[in-house]
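re: ur question from yesterday

yeah so i grabbed the chain u mentioned. its 544 aa long if i counted rite. heres the sequnce exactly as i have it in my notes:
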Amino acid sequence: MSRLKGVAGRDPRAGFRNERRDCAASVPQGLLKAARKSGQLNLSGRNLSEVPQCVWRINVDIPEEANQNLSFSATERWWEQTDLTKLIISNNKLQSLSDDLRLLPALTVLDIHDNQLTSLPSAIRELENLQKLNVSHNKLKILPEEITNLRNLKGLYLQHNELTCIPEGFEQLFNLEDLDLSNNRLSSIPASFSSLSSVVRLNISSNQLKSLPAEISGMKRLKHLDCNSNLLETIPPELASMESLELLYLRRNKLRFLPEFPSCKLLKLPCSLGKLHLKFLALEGNPLRTIRREIINKGTQEVLKYLRSKIKDDGLSQSDCVTETAMTLPSESRVNIHAIITLKTLDYSDKQTALIPDEVFDAVKSNVITSVNFSKNQLCEIPKRIVEMKEMVSDVNLSFNKLSFISLELCMLQKLTFLDLRNNFLNSLPEEMESLVRLQTINLSFNRFKILPEVLYRIPTLETILISNNQVGSVDPQKMKTMENLITLDLQNNDLLQIPPELGNCVNLRTLLLDGNPFRVPRAAILMKGTAAILEYLRDRIPS
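ran it thru and got these structure tokens back, copy pasting raw so excuse formatting
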């Protein structure tokens, strides 16, 4: 040691101590100490221009407290520290990350959104345990190929960057479930995306895409596909084979028509879409000629119904087929048996009836029914016999009726995932709806709600809430933050006089629609920038 001192002229540990002093100035020791116990460190919003060395070395260096405390209690045994698994350094001024990132191999969550990063270090390949990576709202122009080494990644958030391409080998991220590439500069999507067979949500909106690869249909678990605000002129017919697809957003593209395909003489693309079990299809903002605007304005089910009516099958339209397969008994001549047997759908819609006849339920017999459509009738209450299908029905459409209350029978449909109640007279929902533990999408638009029904906050599986065109005057941002699966919230055309800033903390929201409310802020210019910009604006207004 003395020889080293003589050569250097100073204590070699001095630089290390200076480093510690610099670290203490930007990261309180108490925060680091707590992180060693919890395995989680949050340094967001600290105006950092670089990540202090002590953060990268948190699990390597002997902590400061070890030099100060010689009698360790059971809670202060620094050598028993927990490896850092969650690091949040968002909302800072970082322009780069050090290769020392590799010193945190136990990380499962790395959140560095809202910085000024132009690249990611190749050392990111060392984070093999990473499950969630959020690099949104930066200035990334390219992704390092090393990112494809993150085989345990489930959520990858790259929205609002400057990406022009996807690195080769991206398909190796075979555990990926949630991928957001929106608001970049992508002009194409690799055909290799077909290998991303675990992806449930894919957001590629607000890019420069002119087409989608047919291979995208290989994403067999895809439920949510957002292609809004691109340059799409057509979509591949192969999309019709995607049985899991539920939400398809195609707003603001260049779709003039959904074209015919010569290789499929009996298959027209719009009609093939009708075969999908879509729960939400957004087509607004396209110069479409093949579907009348009034049909589009009526919503998803009407569009799909129109498309299905156009399907040609051996020279017979679907309506012809229905006539031939319907039961011929006078009392049941209106029951679509073809739909029951082939589509597993109990359809008694558009009859303008105040009562669903018993014959309709009797016709089910021993068949499995997954979908019920009683829309466009004059129902004042939900038919009690719907409970007979409580163990099999997942989709229920009761829109365009005269319902003023929800009966308990509906609350017993334990497998319900999609519920359409728009265009009724509802102003409340029963607390018993909390038992709908699989509900993912609920449409309450065009009713008489004055607040967001409390019970919705207690259904953690909800992914989509559509409650536009009501009289909703308030939402509870604290309760909404607990809804970790909520990705779409449509509050358009309500009576919201103000938007609580805390709503900006609902960072899982991918689509937040607020147009047509009487609030003054956020202004229209912010709303036009999209959900991420709205949430950021709201977060900035949270009192410190």
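noticed a couple things. The chain has a mean pLDDT of 82. also The radius of gyration is 28 Å.
anyway ttyl
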